[in-house]
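Q: Predict the bound structure with 2-phosphoglycolic acid.
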Amino acid sequence: MRNPSYTIIGNWKMYFSFDQAIKWIRTVKDELNEVCLQSENSLVLCPSFESLYPIQQELSHFHINLGAQDCSNYSQGAYTGQIQARSLSEINCSHCIVGHSERRSYQQETSNQTAEKVALLLENKISPVVCIGESKHEYESGKSELILSEQLKPISKIISSTSSPIPFFIAYEPIWSIGTGIIPENNYLEQIFSFIKTNTNQWSNKKSIHLLYGGSVNAKTCLIIKSVKNVEGFLIGKASTDFQELKKIVLSL
Ligand code: PGA
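A: Predicted complex:
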């Protein structure tokens, strides 16, 4: 596989129903595949669980990867409503988002549970996409780095104790930027990405860690943020559900 310049991950959240997601894919898959072939970047789409398998069937010979939006922190057993990391691997998911701020706030997911999910994903050869980020209040009171290092601590234990060669992603998503249309200043992002880089450089197994930015990314904002050092890709919510916007992003980076 070629070495991508940027990894672009579309987090479809719960924007589409099952029918809408399948229709979106069937309508644009050929053109989107052409776009991905023309670009040096790699694209991962993360639809809701129920659409994963049928979309995997639609995209099986395409240059578009598939990711899940979450997985269980248990490997198997009596956990009603949860999804095994192993099942995600069996349907060829290459990536899985964990620790998203929406799960941390609506489902009370803790950083320790996020780390348990990371361990299961690595066992199943799926790239974890770990989301970290501070709230507006924490940002305004100068606590961003403290919050980020607390969120990273349990992850660092897992990564340091694994010999897995699977690429690993950390998405910095300031909560105050998600869905608001507000993006941080580049000099603030320089400082934060350098902080995360320094932190992850101390982990003993650090060879395949890639840093992404997420929060109000669209075809315009990605061009501003791409100049920030250490940014290797983007985690994109709303804009990834708009084909024209997604196409512009993949082609312009
Ligand atoms: P947004 O969401 O691009 O709609 O701001 C990003 C995310 O929550 O991953």
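A: The chain is about 45% helix and 15% strand.
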